Amino acid sequence: MARQTEFATTVTTVTDDTFATEVLASDLPVLVDFTADWCPPCRMIAPVLAALAEEEAGRLRIVTLNVDDNPRTQAAYAVLSMPTLLLFEAGEPVRQLIGARPKLRLRKELGLDG
Question: Full-prediction pTM beyond 0.85?
Answer without folding.
Answer: yes
